[in-house]
UniProtKB/TrEMBL annotation:
Gene3D superfamilies: Homeodomain-like (1.10.10.60), Jelly Rolls (2.60.120.10). PROSITE patterns: HTH_ARAC_FAMILY_2. Transmembrane segments: none annotated. InterPro entries: AraC-bd, Homeodomain-like_sf, HTH-like, HTH_AraC, RmlC-like_jellyroll, Tscrpt_reg_AraC-type_HTH. This is AraC family transcriptional regulator. GO terms for molecular function: DNA-binding transcription factor activity; sequence-specific DNA binding. Residues 249-346 form the HTH araC/xylS-type domain. Keywords: DNA-binding, Transcription, Transcription regulation.
Length: 349
């Protein structure tokens, strides 16, 4: 027998969800379902709209080493046994990115109070902290929910992306609170296109969990976003430039590529500004200082290197552009309330 196709692996997972009961599903106690009706037979508004919503943090949603996670939203076997035919999640938001992929059928989504329908082949990426709700309103629909930590974007995706592309702008604006980024992005896959290939590969890898599957997931996810960026580029030619005619996305990306030895002077010279003007623009559009942003990139890189357990703490200090180990320890301690050595002991692979 030859190697299974990714779609075959995914369809087998769906079949298990549809036929096997009690597969460690979360219960539907916090959901609105076809059973959530009042004495008049009307659907009860058990959530109180977007003003009353639940906030979920990454520490609750991910295991310690996870950066990316995939779940399936569908009416499964246990639901049907309990009489549930469709469901809506509670309104919620979170400090990680979420991507919805309608693999089969359709679903509804309400984002920041605006309702809409996603159809088979549609992808919706929710922004950080956007209040939203997902509904699976028929038994045959299958939706995959892919959640991604911010750290994965800092360390992996942003350095790969063309910083002039609107999709990279979406993530950079969200990560650095530039202006008010959109609550979501929506794409439609073309049959057999490269985006579909990467997305199905990602889900199949998560399902099978073979050796080094997380690395394959990160590679597939990077390929997916680059593919979507190409699609988005052809759709929208806009570049996010503020009233000062400064492209803050390019500035943040340049910092991300040069944080080891960058200074405010070299940054200002590269973009033809004075140091004072550069400092003012960064503060205006990100609500942070130049030093804050450089430190954030260094700390995210430090965590990655400490987890890999490949370099000594002294070597990591030099890799990040710090000339002094004790100073690195102090900065790291302010961020994570522990020493780099302690962090490595608790989180190294």
């Amino acid at each position: 027998m030859g190697k299974k196709k990714d779609t075959e692996i995914i369809n087998e997972w769906i079949l298990l969800e549809k036929t096997e009961k009690n597969r460690n599903h979360e219960n539907r106690d916090g959901y609105m379902t076809n059973l959530s009706r009042n004495r008049y037979g009307e659907m009860e508004d058990v959530f109180g709209g977007t003003k009353r919503h639940r906030t979920i943090r990454a520490v609750q949603a991910f295991d310690k080493e996870e950066q990316v996670k995939v779940t399936m939203e569908t009416v499964h076997a246990t639901d049907r046994e309990n009489g549930i035919r469709y469901f809506l999640t509670a309104f919620h938001n979170h400090d990680f990115f979420e991507m919805i992929y309608v693999y089969r059928g359709q679903c509804t989504t309400t984002i920041e109070g605006k309702a809409g329908t996603l159809y088979e082949g549609d992808i919706c990426i929710y922004n950080l902290e956007a209040v939203h709700q997902l509904g699976v309103e028929d038994e045959n629909s299958v939706v995959f929910n892919i959640i991604m930590k911010k750290e994965w974007f800092y360390n992996t995706l942003i350095p790969l992306m063309d910083n002039t592309n609107p999709i990279s702008g979406f993530f950079i604006k969200a990560l650095y609170h530039i202006a008010s980024p959109a609550g979501h992005l929506v794409f439609s896959l073309t049959e057999g296109g490269e985006s579909a290939f990467f997305l199905n590969k990602l889900i199949a890898e998560f399902c099978e969990k073979k050796e080094m599957y997380q690395n394959m997931i990160y590679t597939s996810l990077s390929g997916l976003f680059i593919s979507l960026a190409r699609q988005y580029e052809s759709r929208i030619a806009d570049r996010s430039i503020g009233e000062d005619k400064v492209d803050m996305i390019r500035i943040i990306t340049y910092i991300s590529m040069n944080y080891r030895d960058i200074t405010l002077k070299t940054l200002a010279e590269y973009f033809n500004y004075t140091e004072r003007t550069m400092m003012r623009l960064i503060r205006k559009y990100t609500y942070r200082t130049f030093t804050d942003i450089v430190t954030e990139f260094r700390m995210n890189r430090a965590c990655l290197l400490l987890k890999e357990n490949r370099l000594s703490v002294e070597e990591i200090t030099a890799e990040l552009g710090y000339g002094d180990r004790s100073y690195f320890d102090r900065v790291f301690g302010r961020y994570y309330h522990m020493t780099p050595a302690r962090y490595r002991k608790e989180y190294s692979k």
